[in-house]
Structure formats: structure tokens, C-alpha cells
């Protein structure tokens, strides 16, 4: 409403330009509006009135587009919202410079960007409520991780590639006699010169050079000892130290007792030696268990929960950068608009770098949790068997002939050197079960075959065999039927542990007087589905495909719809149950992205149900994982030869998987 003291100055904006803007912004998901300055007779800006607003802007303000046209800012909006920005909008018009800030409109946090437009402004609004909550959640999670590291009873610190201390917990600082503030961001060797030239320095430099890890005991005081674990984690070297002074004291007392017993009795020497081996093996297992307990809890509790929101944060940032970059290069955008867009792009790239740093931190925690985990890969079991035969031949040559019954088997998922160690021990064990002097009668037979998703290897001998009582205890640590001094009883126990670490199984059968058979079952190695898949963009005129996304994280499904939706038709199901119902009615999808771990029905449950009802759909599945697996999930991924992608994922990988989808059948 105009009064006697103000007037509306007509905005010299051509109708054609306003119509073009209205047409371009009508379907845009972000709010966009044009406001015209309302001036007094003296030329002062008193208010602004709406010339035009797109549907997104009308929804944000809770009014219709036609209702807003011609209305003034102060008439409709709350003073706490957009109406409270009157002075800022007046400054934009008078200075001719754009301005961006955040404000609250109702319960929604909006990010507003005002650009001068003749005698008015072009105002864009973006709902950033969800992004702010995600950022706050990530910050709280990192604070929680820091609190855990500070509250644990052990020392922990990290250094970067320049040896600058990037984190020091209070216990690590206490070991040096300095405060955390004195140590932080200083070069380790300058902050703690007493470490120079010590075994500790040599271990750290070897880890940095080899990008490996070291586990050793370190004397940190006159009567103080620590177990130290040093490992390389990308751009950092991490060190974890646990006080084992009490354990060392117990060991010293035990050693003294053993020495006193040894002085008078030769027979007790063998018993003491066996006990020492037993205690040392138990100690190693205890150290390993204690070392991984804290990191395992951190990684399991944090990794999966961070990776899910991190996926849609990273995905949205990448999508925003890709969409804004071409706009910033348009010559018709004008220097000021290009400058604003470039500044926004810089901010988005910095945010993307921050998300990547969070991903690296999570990965480092998970690496700490499984520092001694084997790196498994495809292994030719025949080559591993031949290695074992060549190494064991000195034991076999005078006892038995070696016969081979090799089948056509695919590579097994294993660790080549350790699998060779297993076969070597089984062959030596077979040789010791055969009496010497009857070479022509005895055989050691090596058999391989495929059985479903497994590779089976059998080592059979015609030796003495085992009684049921001995067979029942064959894999127990320190159990042996050999005379004292000829065997530790650890061989088969170690073999069992190695095979299980490769997700396999080791079993034995035996008949007294006829021989024994040891069977090794290993999963078949899956071939990588998309290593290094290049970024794929649909070309002009390329056929659109139908994609189904199944995930119980709404933000994640939104990201995938945004990334793939320009080139393909994307349908979303927010649970495994919803996906099954949808596929019963409509199975015409070229590619199905399904989360492995969901609340109601997991991806494994969906797979099992479709295998029973619609197996032809399974070849179109790609499973999405967040890095946290149950035993069932690990077994499923080993047994099912379907592609999978780790969160957070690259847009190029998604496009490549859609473009390479198998043709529909049926």
C-alpha cells in the first residue's frame, strides 16, 4: 500500500527479460524472486515489493506466486525472517554489490544471496538446515573420538610427513614431561631431542620409508616398559603405546623362578621350556587382543555411521561443483556474477576437501583396528602346493611317492605365502606319519577340485593314521604325540589359524593304520568389478536407462537421484520390503543399487528373496556398503559374485555401472 510520502519507482527491466527469467527459474528447486525498490518522494528506499517469485520461493514463504506479485516485503514476511533483511537489501541496491548471509525463516535455516538488478534485487534462497545438522553431527562425532583418545589409559600421537605432531593425547605428553600445548605442531625431533638416535627413531623412520608398521617393546624409563605399535596411515604416522611394566615385572619373576628350577633338574628344563613357549604364545595373543580392542570399538562404532552421512555430503558437494562450474564460465553472466560463483565454488571445494579429510580419518581408525589383517587376493592353489612339495621334498623323498590329482579350479581368495606355509606343514606332517624304508608302498596324494563357491585342496597320506581320541585333539595348541623335544604341538594349530584368517576352514579325517586326509576349503577369489572405473557422462542423444535405488537413508537416495537423474530415470525405495513390493509390480530396471545393511530387510535378505522368486533380476544388482560388516555380510560378499561400491562413492563410478548394466531379459 502506498502512502502520501512514498512512491514506487518503476523497475526499468524489459518484460522479455523478466519473462525469460521466469521461464528459466520456474522448475528450479531453489527459491528465486525479483524484488523492486519502493522509494519515497525524496528517493529513499522505504520497502521492496515482489515483481515475481518462482514456485520454490512461493513454497518457502507459504504464499502463492500470484499472491506475492505486487506485495511488499513488510506486509507478508516475519520480521525475524526475510523482512528483517530490509537494510541489507537496501545496501545491495545502493552499493551495487551482491551480498550473501544466513537467516531463519520459521523453522528453516535459509542461505540467501542478493544480487543488484537495476532498481531492485534478484534474491536466491537455499534451505541449508540439513547441511548444518550434518556438519554439527560430524563435528560432535569427531569431538567424541577425541574424548575417547584423551580418556584412554594409553599414549597415542600422530605426526605428518614433515614429522610435525598433529595430535598428542595427555598420556603421550605426560611420557615426555611436556604439555600438549608445548608439543602440538612442533617437529617431533625438536620437541623431544632425547628420542634422536634411539631405536624408537629408527622404527619411526623405517615405517615412514616403507609405509608399513612396527610392533616392539620400548624401555621408557628406568623401570618402565611400553608395548609400542607404529603404523603408516596415509599422510600420518601414528604411534600407540601401552604400559606393560607390571607384565614385565611378572615375566622377570617368572624367569627367575625358571632359572632356579633349571639349576638342579635337567628333566625340568624341558618342562620349563615348553611352559615358556606356551606363555609367550599366550602373551602374543593377549597383546594382539588388547591392541585391537580399543581401535576395533572405535572403528565399528564410528566408521559405518560416519560413512553414510559422509556419502551424501560428499555427493552433494561434488554435484554442486559440477553444476556451478559451467555457469561461472558463461561470458553473459557478467564479471560480478562470475566472481560470486567462483567464490562459491571455492567454498564448495574447500568443504569437499574437508569431507575427504574426515573420510581419511575414519579409514585410518579402521586401519588401526585391523593392522595385522592379511591382505588377501587371488592365489593359484596349484602353485602354492608345488611350493610346499619342493620345500618338503627332503622329508618325503625316503618315505613316499607324491601323486597329483589336480582339477580345473579358479584362483582362491588367500595369502600366497601363508597358504604355501600351510601346505608345507601339512606335507611335512604327512611325511612324519609314514615310516621310512617302504617308499614303494606309501603315497602322499594332492587333490584339488571346485565345490560351489569354494576351492578344495586335500593332502592325503597312507601313514599310521590317528585314533579318534588323537584326531579330536589334533588342532589343540601344544598337543603332540611325538617325543619330548621333537615337536612343539603348535603346527596344526597355527595352520588352522592361518586358514581361518583367509576365511577358509581346515578339517581332518583319519583311519588308524590306513592314513589321514587334511582338507583345506578356501573361498573362490572374486574378480574386481570396476577397479579404476573412469567417470562416465551420458552423451547427447544417448538412451536413458531406468535405475532403482534401495537405501533407508533418505539423503543418500536423494544424492543418487541427483547424480543420475539428468541422464536416467531414477526410482527410489526406502527399505528392502518396499523394494520387493515394487519389483513384484515393475521389474523393468537396468541397474539396481541396493544398500547391504538396512533396518527392516537387509540387502542380503532382498537378494535371497529375489533368488527364490525372480533370479533374473540379480545380475542387475550393485551392493552399496559403508565399511562395517557382520560375519554374515562378509560371508555373503565372498559367496555372491556381484559388484559392490564403498561409501562415499565417486559419481563417475555410478555412471559407469549404469552404462555397463547387462541387457534386460524376459
Automatic annotation (TrEMBL):
One of its GO terms (molecular function) is phosphorelay sensor kinase activity. This is histidine kinase. The lineage of its organism: Bacteria, Pseudomonadati, Myxococcota, Myxococcia, Myxococcales. InterPro entries: CheY-like_superfamily, HATPase_C_sf, HATPase_dom, His_kinase_dom, HisK_dim/P_dom, HisK_dim/P_sf, PAS, PAS-like_dom_sf. Keywords: Phosphoprotein. Residues 301-526 form the Histidine kinase domain. Residues 141-186 form the PAS domain. Its EC number is 2.7.13.3. It comes from the Bacteria. It catalyses: ATP + protein L-histidine = ADP + protein N-phospho-L-histidine. The modification 4-aspartylphosphate is found at residue 595. Residues 546-662 form the Response regulatory domain.
Amino acid at each position: 500500500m502506498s502512502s502520501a510520502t512514498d512512491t514506487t519507482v518503476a523497475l526499468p527491466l524489459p518484460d522479455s527479460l523478466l519473462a525469460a527469467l521466469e521461464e528459466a527459474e520456474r522448475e528450479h528447486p531453489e527459491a528465486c524472486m525479483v524484488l523492486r525498490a519502493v522509494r519515497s518522494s525524496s528517493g529513499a528506499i522505504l520497502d521492496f515489493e515482489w515483481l515475481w517469485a518462482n514456485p520454490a520461493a512461493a513454497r518457502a514463504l507459504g504464499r502463492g506466486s500470484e499472491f506475492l506479485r505486487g506485495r511488499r516485503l513488510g506486509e507478508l514476511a516475519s520480521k525475524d525472517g526475510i523482512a528483517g533483511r530490509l537494510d541489507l537489501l537496501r545496501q545491495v541496491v545502493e552499493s551495487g554489490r551482491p551480498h550473501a548471509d544466513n537467516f531463519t525463516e520459521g523453522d528453516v535455516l535459509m542461505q540467501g544471496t542478493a544480487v543488484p538488478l537495476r532498481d531492485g534485487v534478484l534474491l536466491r534462497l537455499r534451505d541449508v538446515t540439513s547441511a548444518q545438522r550434518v556438519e554439527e553431527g560430524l563435528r560432535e562425532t569427531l569431538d567424541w573420538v577425541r574424548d575417547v583418545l584423551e580418556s584412554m589409559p594409553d599414549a597415542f600421537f600422530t605426526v605428518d610427513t614433515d614429522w610435525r605432531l598433529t595430535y598428542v593425547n595427555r598420556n603421550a605428553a605426560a611420557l615426555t614431561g611436556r604439555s600438549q600445548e608445548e608439543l602440538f605442531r612442533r617437529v617431533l625431533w625438536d620437541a623431544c631431542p632425547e628420542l634422536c638416535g634411539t631405536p624408537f627413531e629408527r622404527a619411526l623412520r623405517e615405517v615412514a620409508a616403507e609405509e608399513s608398521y612396527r610392533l616392539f617393546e620400548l624401555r621408557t624409563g628406568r623401570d618402565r616398559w611400553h608395548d609400542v605399535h607404529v603404523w603408516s596411515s596415509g599422510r600420518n604416522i601414528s604411534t600407540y603405546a601401552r604400559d606393560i611394566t607390571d607384565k614385565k615385572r611378572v615375566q622377570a619373576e617368572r624367569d627367575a623362578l625358571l632359572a632356579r628350577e633349571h639349576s638342579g633338574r635337567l628333566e625340568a628344563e624341558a618342562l620349563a621350556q615348553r611352559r615358556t613357549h606356551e606363555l609367550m604364545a599366550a602373551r602374543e595373543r593377549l597383546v594382539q587382543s588388547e591392541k585391537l580392542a580399543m581401535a576395533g570399538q572405535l572403528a565399528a562404532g564410528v566408521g559405518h555411521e560416519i560413512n553414510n552421512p559422509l556419502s551424501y555430503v560428499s555427493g552433494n558437494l561434488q554435484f554442486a561443483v559440477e553444476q556451478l562450474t559451467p555457469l561461472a564460465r558463461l561470458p553473459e553472466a557478467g564479471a560480478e556474477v562470475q566472481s560470486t560463483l567462483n567464490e562459491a565454488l571455492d567454498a564448495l571445494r574447500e568443504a569437499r576437501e574437508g569431507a575427504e579429510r574426515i573420510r581419511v580419518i575414519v579409514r585410518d581408525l579402521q586401519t588401526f583396528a585391523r593392522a595385522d589383517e592379511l591382505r588377501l587376493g587371488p592365489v593359484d592353489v596349484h602353485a602354492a602346493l608345488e611350493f610346499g612339495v619342493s620345500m618338503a621334498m627332503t622329508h618325503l623323498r625316503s618315505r613316499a611317492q607324491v601323486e597329483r590329482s589336480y582339477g580345473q579350479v579358479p584362483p582362491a581368495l588367500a595369502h600366497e605365502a601363508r597358504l604355501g606355509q600351510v601346505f608345507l606343514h601339512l606335507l611335512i606332517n604327512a611325511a612324519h606319519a609314514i615310516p621310512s624304508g617302504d617308499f614303494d608302498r606309501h603315497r602322499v596324494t594332492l587333490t584339488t577340485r571346485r565345490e560351489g563357491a569354494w576351492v578344495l585342496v586335500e593332502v592325503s597320506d597312507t601313514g599310521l593314521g590317528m585314533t579318534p581320541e588323537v584326531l579330536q585333539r589334533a588342532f589343540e595348541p601344544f598337543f603332540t604325540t611325538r617325543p619330548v623335544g621333537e615337536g612343539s604341538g603348535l603346527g596344526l594349530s597355527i595352520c588352522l589359524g592361518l586358514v581361518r584368517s583367509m576365511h577358509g576352514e581346515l578339517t581332518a579325517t583319519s583311519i588308524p593304520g590306513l592314513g589321514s586326509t587334511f582338507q583345506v576349503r578356501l573361498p573362490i577369489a572374486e574378480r574386481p568389478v570396476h577397479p579404476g572405473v573412469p567417470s562416465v557422462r551420458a552423451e547427447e542423444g544417448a538412451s536413458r536407462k531406468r535405475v532403482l535405488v534401495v537405501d533407508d537413508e533418505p539423503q543418500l537416495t536423494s544424492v543418487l537421484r541427483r547424480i543420475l537423474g539428468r541422464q536416467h530415470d531414477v526410482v527410489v525405495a526406502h527399505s528392502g520390503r518396499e523394494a520387493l513390493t515394487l519389483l513384484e509390480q515393475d521389474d523393468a530396471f537396468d541397474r539396481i543399487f541396493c544398500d547391504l545393511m538396512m533396518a527392516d530387510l537387509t540387502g542380503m535378505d532382498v537378494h535371497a528373496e529375489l533368488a527364490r522368486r525372480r533370479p533374473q533380476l540379480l545380475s542387475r544388482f550393485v551392493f552399496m556398503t559403508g565399511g562395517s560388516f557382520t560375519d554374515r555380510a562378509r560371508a555373503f560378499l565372498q559367496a555372491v559374485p556381484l559388484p559392490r561400491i564403498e561409501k562415499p562413492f565417486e559419481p563417475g563410478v555410478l555412471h559407469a555401472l549404469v552404462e555397463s548394466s547387462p541387457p534386460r531379459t524376459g
